[in-house]
Amino acid sequence: MVEQERVRVVRCGGSELNFRRAVFSADSKYIFCVSGDFVKVYSTATEECVHILQGHRNLVTGIQLNPNNHLQLYSCSFDGTIKLWDYVDGILIKTFIVGHKLHALFTVARAEDSVFVTINKEKPDIFQLVSVKLPKSSSQEIESKELSFVLDYINQSPKYIAFGNEGEYVAAVRDFYLSVYFFKKKTTSRFTLSSSRNKKHAKNNFTCVACHPKEDCIATGHKDGKIRLWRNFDDDKKYTYTCLHWHHDMVMDLAFSVTGTSLLSGGRESVLVEWRDAAEKNKEFLPRLGATIEHISVSPAGDLFCTSHSDNKIIVIHRNLEASAVIQGLVKDSNIFTGLMIDPRTKALVLNGKPGHLQFYSLQSDKQLYNLDIVQQEYINDYGLIQIELTKAAFGCYGNWLATVEQRQEKETELELQMKLWMYNKKTQGFVLNTKVNMPHEDHITALCFCNAEKSENPTLVTASKDGHFKVWILTDDSDIYKKAVGWTCDFVVSFEEIVTIWDSETWELKCTFCQRAGKIRHLCFGRLTCSKYLLGATENGILCCWNLLSCALEWSAKLNVRVMEPDLNSENIAAISHSSMGSDLFVFKPSEPRPLYIQKNISREEVQWGVFVPRDVPESFTSEAYQWLNRSQFYFLTKSQSLLTLSTKSPEEKLTPTSKQLLAEESLPTTPFYFILGKHRQQQDEKLNAALENELVQLPLTENIPAISELLHTPAHVLPSASFLCSMFVNSLLLSKESKSAEEIPDDVDMEEEKERDDSDEENDFTEKVQDTDNTDLGEDIIHQLSKSEEKELRKFRKVDYSWITAL
């Protein structure tokens, strides 16, 4: 039962999909990416998440296919373990305990029983590349303590390490140094670029490295946008390199194609560049990818590429440089000014996304639905430029209206403030700009909200500002001779200071005032439903107060450092999250009584910044009093590192939709020659059967609707009645009904038109018979004489006689 399961904090989204390079499956059907302490498996065709591999206790830092079995996947983590997965079924096969904090993972086909990992032993910024031997054992957890040193003084990111020429050597870069280790010779060659501060050599820093899969060639990317191709590096004196230059900023990542004929590069220009035959003239571009390219991956089959972007997005690209799929995670903005909101129409989570955008994020599928461009200006990627920021947003009660506030301020006296009202358009299924207000207040807007009264005919918007005023905006008729339209105007202005004031929303009269000595008010919210007479406020000094609006008195107060306070719209419950040096704690209570209904200590080690209740489509059935507050709504909260968490009894793998798992099962079926022969034969049979059914007048009943078949298929065998009992029911269900006439009853001398007329007349007769039967039963009237078959036949012949000669008289 549900109440017996433990409610725990579950990571439900928001983790970085671009933290490490994505990895393709051998057949290019799936793509794997790290996501926090999970590994997610996506379909490259449908973009659906088909599996979530969970088992690591800390951040996953590397994933690689098993070179000896392409249906298995290795993963490493900060928890010091390497795990081997069967990604088709989502099953953990083995866990290898290394004991060190693992920062990157590499596999080579030649090293059958070993993998390569990056660790740090002595200093926190000095890393080593070591080989880990994976012993063979039947147990599921195995200790792997046998480490072999390979390279020292390397970078922790896997972009700075690459294996080349089928694993004959490994190249690593850091700062201005390139190190190449040869496994056969067991020697290391080191190369250094000039690090002088003049303009020519100021940005020679290495930023990434890639090795040719079949030749002795190393490609390195640099901070100045150049790409160097190194050859003859087995000799410290005869080595050479050539330069390719297109990027104006640093090269973020490099990758060779499977055959090695092309080199892919990407950077902050959001353009994927393909260098063919390593020539400056043979370049192909895929521009306007939306954000900085962080990583580039190539499928083992060579038919697909993928790019990971800074806006937490993965784009799957065909070999001809055409984007085929986009896997968009939760976009992490530098600051979440708008907080967490729920779109009343789509039930999507809404918050800051790309600069100047609102993102609509599906909590069920853990992917972005769409972006709404609020600022509607081209974003310029410049660190010194002060951008326009989207600071506030609010939805109307039914999702018909959206209010946003954007601002830009270079100096204290130069504030640019703009408020926009958006109306939902049913035709375009999106929000359209309705009203734009320049400088709605003289200072920063601190809050805005709609009047969510269900009986209110006209929507009302209230804005509050640091200028000591709040303004009321109402919807007015803005029609003219050209079109009918509505717009927003300011209706009322009131000034107040830091005390709590209560106003009538219809007459805007001051009703009462609460003076709070415990400090500045940080949060305010009204109670809901039966607790609507209460007002709650949290102060910066760590006091939670509850006022009774009917008696205008303080009902109760408590010592609690509240950082987040959110009411549940479907119940009287209110969630409050406090923060201390030990972590963040959750308290759920009703305003009518100060005793909490539920307390969850240490829901997060870091500070929780935002929270929101999301209504459930299907209510839960928690019977325990401590968990009943989760029946109607689910509580989500966002941490300082922008990890989206929730309280649930289900793991992320259990929350996957059945359609995704069915999709995985169907795609994993093998296509044998017998399957092609049988499938083609069945397809031809189905086409003939469909054509025959379309031409026939009589249609057989669907087998899904036959109760006998349903009972046979869905009832357990050990409780089924005897076969003799079901046989008569089964045979009778397959027989045609008496209302439909067979073709043998139709006389030969009647044409097709008469057949249609007879069917129509039969339906009318059947209908009149039913009506007459009911009339006779209810009213007791006489029965009308019914024609025999011979009389009907004579009547049809009589109808066939041509009477057109009468018109000539």
TrEMBL record:
SUPFAM superfamilies: WD40 repeat-like. The keyword rRNA-binding does not apply. Keywords: Nucleus, Repeat, Ribosome biogenesis, rRNA processing, Transcription, WD repeat. GO terms for molecular function: RNA binding. WD repeats lie at residues 53-95. The keyword Repeat applies. It is found in: Nucleus, Nucleolus. It comes from the Eukaryota. This is WD repeat domain 75. It holds the Pfam family Beta-prop_WDR75_2nd. One of its GO terms (biological process) is positive regulation of transcription by RNA polymerase I. It comes from Equus caballus.
